[in-house]
Amino acid sequence: MSSPPSKRYEQHRFLSIAELLLPWLTPQELSTISCTCHTLSRLSKRITAVRSSDASRSFEPLPIPFINTVDSHPYTYFLYTPTCLISSPDFARQFWGSPLNPNPIPQINFDSFAEVSGTVGCDCGEICDEECSCLVLRGGVVVTECGMSCDCELSCGNRETQKGVTVELKIVRVENKGWGLFAAQFIPSGLFVCEYAGELLTTKEANRRQQVYDELTKGGRFSSALLVVREFLPSRKACFRINIDATRIGNVARFINHSCDGGNLSTVLIRSSGALLPRVCFFTSRDIQAGEELSFSYGDVRLRPEGLHCFCGSSCCFGIMPSEDT
Ligand SMILES: C[S@@+](CC[C@H](N)C(=O)[O-])C[C@H]1O[C@@H](n2cnc3c(N)ncnc32)[C@H](O)[C@@H]1O
């Protein structure tokens, strides 16, 4: 007769299974499970520490930590995507914060919707130069990059916004504003910081969600990140609109707060060869020192008495945040 497994073996097996399962849990679920025994409580604490050390969970080239000296929130939970996607109900959880495997190979199914089949890119070879047919400048700013239909590699110089977040950033808890995105190094003017990534929505769905978010915001303690960007013709008529919701699925750009003076970031719509839609990208509009908060203007201020109070602190602050008329 074989002897029963030792207590040590049972404990080891229990821990191995817990280490595989717990990184899939939300903070609420982790907190509930951590009440059940010391082992799970210790493991939950280690997962929380790993999560706070990198909001990007290795999707970006550099870690982007949460720093909080204001209250007890260690991090905000959301699903990470480095670029926009069309969400599906299957994408409901993401493995995040395993102490044993803190840098899993990120797996996201980048939808083929994004590619326009049959388009022709450049044929420069591995690396493009200023003669590249994909390169389009508007007001000195590159607005068209190489893309899926080109032969060049990701290392090509005309793909500046496709390499993820390459400047050091941190997410800092700010009095009255929740989290904010901050520079953790000097960033010169005109440099790419990050894309605004999240779920691409139809205007109908964006309107529906905005109403839900407005209601939740009234209850306090809820922060949404639904961005609407419009492109205008020289006649000032809007010709294109893109709705990106980073509230549930997004990237670090979801932490950028509003500033009434326009902030220190400018928004540029970048198109790339073969891609169906442009991407909303943030570039520094002036030199930014290490430790400065990054911000941009959320849009026209419509002074509504029920609008959120603005704490941007700029000398031209309107006192109320712009409300997007979606
Ligand atoms: C895209 S999120 C920015 C990140 C957010 N602070 C957080 O903690 O997740 C937008 C929300 O941040 C807050 N926020 C942004 N800018 C603000 C400002 N200037 N003053 C007060 N709250 C601000 C509002 O709650 C707003 O709905």
Task: Calculate the terminal CA-CA distance, rounded to whole Å.
Answer: 71 Å
| CATH topology name of the largest domain | Beta-clip-like
Bound heterogens, unique: S-adenosylmethionine
| CATH class category name of the largest domain | Mainly Beta
Largest sheet, spatial ordering of strands = 3-4-12-13-7
Can you tell me the overall shape? globular
Over all CA atoms, what is the radius of gyration?
22 Å
**The CATH H-level homologous superfamily of the largest domain:** SET domain
Instruction: Report the uncertain regions.
Output: none
Describe this structure in words.
The protein is of the alpha/beta class and 326 residues long. It folds into 2 domains: 47 residues, no CATH class; 185 residues, SET domain (Beta-clip-like, Beta Complex), CATH 2.170.270.10. The protein contains 4 helices and 14 strands. The chain has a 5-stranded mixed β-sheet, with no helix packed on it. Strands 2, 8, 9 and 10 form a 4-stranded mixed β-sheet that branches. The chain has a 3-stranded mixed β-sheet with strand order 1-5-6. Helix 2 packs antiparallel against helix 3. The longest helix has 16 residues. It starts with 6 loop residues before the first helix and ends in a 30-residue tail after the last strand. The mean pLDDT is 89. S-adenosylmethionine binds next to strand 6 and strand 11. One of its GO terms (biological process) is methylation. Keywords: Chromosome, Metal-binding, Methyltransferase, S-adenosyl-L-methionine, Transferase, Zinc.
